[in-house]
Write a structure and sequence with these properties.
alpha/beta; 5-stranded parallel β-sheet; 25 helices; 17 strands; globular
């Protein structure tokens, strides 16, 4: 797997938009690797003809992170329309359909074909089209006498959303609720596991590499793993070393696909975090790389709220790419330093272009040279400055939330609980949690519920203590309110906060029930210290912390003025979460670890592989890993996995859906 998953998916989408012909570029006979497609033949030529793109909402989600409107146009797409929308006939232009293979979509396509809306129809389904639906569709177009207008029909196997080079989601909403709900029938679970398996098959098909599959025994991971194993085994082109589209594999190294269950670690998606990208997802409105937040501005002497929206490009934005996994204070410091550097450089260039140059050099020649240099360097510099200023706005919005809610205090206490720092001193743990969740000046409703959940999952505290802590929190919120609330008077809860508290209490009840029935593993050591790997000092290193904050304050005074005390604890040690430890143990083939416990499925081999036999053999090193979480993933887990990614090993992360802590909290509340 030499190219990233996002690049491979882009190749497949570009080929689809080229009417399922290979994309020929000006510089190579291979498919274009540039997302912008600047080396494509001009749109409107025979090699890149104009066309209409018709898609449904799920397939729009697939394309949006890959191609902007201008990039679609470079690929000949003049219009992109939702299949459910009212569409005018354009009878002289071919149409590319990219939709889910549902009865409703097929009925709509048959109607479009019968009406002759477009010149020809290139039908592409995001996953496999069932034979029964295909026969039903065929009858419709034959009856209307319009079958000759259908130019092609393809199963594309692109049923996943790639948000970054190494990050994807299947966009299966409420996935944790779906297979953990008490009233869910076996047939519903079977269908859900099939959907997940087909989504992972799309990932495998896009890569064109047959993976080795590892998963724990039993439950959802084994169901999905065995279904996926059979799908790959039954797909001849994949087993012959070609992708689902017939493209040749690009690597001799087989990836390792690790399928895990969210129930093995319920702490990571709930607890507070300290890194830039994960904090954005936690405290701001963030979905599919789009961020939205409200800022207060002054206009004509009056203050008003303005909503800001930005699209974050983790692969193309140098600052975000470099600092998304860094502790939040480091991101602030770097933003201030880089913005100062760019501003100074801009001033230097503008000063040079305005210089008279009368120091022995021909003024005309000197001015021309200086102007040429400025013209070459200034646009790129201004673009970099613009991106840095966007991040300054985002950092400020995150800081406002972090400071108002005292997020570092929750982060520090939850980390201490999850790493077992309290040991057997359950009395102190209970006292510290009680103090924070009953303080009306600290955190909002969901911050406090999340802390109680971490206390419930990460300690062996008796149920009576958990009930006491949860009850005290509820009583304090109902009588004293929360300092961080909207739409309510001080000392009271808003209607929205009351609903959040109700959901939160139900989530706590659900987890208490699982805990009492021993249906979830002991998470008292949910995170382990990554010795030698720190992210800049620790709470126990005050000299280093003070020096850091002094340095940061000098470089970004305005933004950090109120940050010094409140974000200092976010420079704590890095700890390996459970998924990271599992993947590392499997990659390193460590004895007495998951490498001996997990199933080993190889689509190229019939039946299960006996790992004990493999342990006596020399196994090839693992170069590419796909860590996949059933039941929802999160940015904190994605970031943590990159700790064990290096020049020898690349780790991609996927999940049934990407969830922020509050979304996961709501899912837990639905199960009580």
């Amino acid at each position: 797997m030499t190219s990233s998953l996002k690049t491979s998916q882009l190749h497949a989408v570009s080929r689809m938009l080229n009417l399922n012909e290979d994309v020929i570029t000006s510089s190579t006979t291979q498919a274009s690797t540039g997302i912008g497609g600047n080396d494509l033949p001009p749109a409107g030529t025979p090699q890149n003809q104009w066309k209409i793109l018709v898609y449904d909402a799920p397939c729009r989600s697939v394309i949006s992170p890959l191609l902007s409107v201008s990039q679609l146009r470079r690929r000949g797409v003049t219009l992109h329309l939702l299949i459910q929308s009212d569409r005018e006939p354009i009878p002289d232009v071919p149409a590319v359909y990219f939709v889910e293979p549902t009865r409703a979509n097929l009925t709509q396509i048959a109607s479009d074909v019968a009406k002759g809306l477009y010149a020809s129809y290139h039908l592409n389904f995001v996953t496999r089209l069932d034979r029964s639906l295909m026969e039903e569709f065929a009858r419709l177009v034959v009856q209307s006498g319009s079958i000759s207008r259908i130019a092609s029909l393809h199963d594309q196997y692109l049923d996943y959303v790639c948000l970054e080079k190494r990050l994807f989601t299947l966009n299966k909403r409420d996935s944790y609720v779906l297979y953990n709900g008490s009233g869910v029938t076996e047939s519903v679970i079977e269908d859900a596991m099939n959907d997940i398996a087909y989504g992972l098959f799309s990932v495998v098909a896009t890569m064109g590499c047959v993976p080795v599959i590892r998963c724990p025994k039993g439950g959802a991971p084994e169901m999905v793993a065995r279904k996926l194993n059979k799908m790959i085994s039954d797909h001849p082109t994949l087993l012959r070393g070609r992708g689902a589209s017939g493209s040749a594999m690009q690597s001799h190294h087989r990836p390792l696909l690790v399928i895990m269950d969210r129930n093995s670690d319920l702490i990571t998606p709930i607890q507070h975090t300290s890194t830039y990208q994960a904090l954005i997802d936690d405290v701001l409105n963030h979905n599919a790389n789009r961020i939205e937040f409200v800022v207060e501005v002054e206009e004509n002497g009056r203050k008003k709220n303005v909503t800001k929206r930005f699209d974050l490009e983790a692969d193309d934005d140098p600052f975000y790419s470099s600092h998304k996994f860094n502790p939040f204070p480091e991101a602030i410091e770097s933003n201030g330093a880089e913005l100062t550097e760019v501003t100074n450089r801009q001033s230097e260039i503008q000063a040079k272009t305005g210089a008279s140059g009368n120091d022995g050099v021909d003024p005309m020649e000197s001015a021309a040279n200086e102007l040429a240099t400025a013209v070459d360097s200034l646009p790129a510099l201004l673009d970099r400055k613009k991106k840095l200023e966007v991040h300054t706005s985002i950092l400020q919005a995150v800081m406002n939330e972090v400071a108002a809610r005292d997020v570092p205090q929750f982060y520090e206490l939850e980390s201490s609980l999850a790493t077992g720092n309290y040991g057997k001193d359950l009395t102190k743990a209970k006292r510290d949690v009680l103090e924070l969740v009953t303080d009306p000046a600290k955190g909002n409703v969901q911050d406090k519920v999340r802390l109680v959940i971490v206390y419930c999952l990460a300690t062996t505290a008796p149920t009576a203590d958990i009930d006491e802590v949860a009850g005290s929190m509820k009583n304090a919120l109902e009588t004293k309110g929360s300092a961080v609330t909207t739409g309510a008077q001080h000392g009271t809860l808003s209607i929205d906060d009351k609903k959040k508290l109700e959901h939160g209490m139900r989530a706590i009840d659900y987890l208490k029930k699982l805990r009492s029935m021993q249906m979830i593993p002991n998470m008292s050591d949910a995170m382990q210290d990554a010795s030698g790997m720190t992210s800049g000092g620790g709470a126990g290193d005050p000299d280093m912390l003070s020096a850091f904050m002094a340095r940061a304050t000098n470089q970004a005074t305005g933004l950090l003025a109120k940050a010094t005390e409140r974000v200092g604890t976010m420079l704590g040690k890095v700890h390996k979460h459970r998924a990271t430890r599992v993947v590392e143990n499997l990659c390193e083939m460590k004895p007495n670890s998951e490498d001996e416990e997990y199933l080993y499925l190889d689509p190229k081999v019939k039946g299960d592989v006996d790992v004990s036999v493999l342990r006596n053999m020399t196994r090839a090193p693992v170069r590419d890993v796909i860590a996949f979480m059933i039941g929802g993933g999160c940015y904190a887990e994605y970031q943590n996995l990159q700790m064990i990614s290096d020049e020898r090993r690349v780790i991609s992360y996927g999940s049934t859906e990407l969830i922020d802590p509050c979304v996961f909290l709501n899912q837990l509340g639905k199960l009580a």
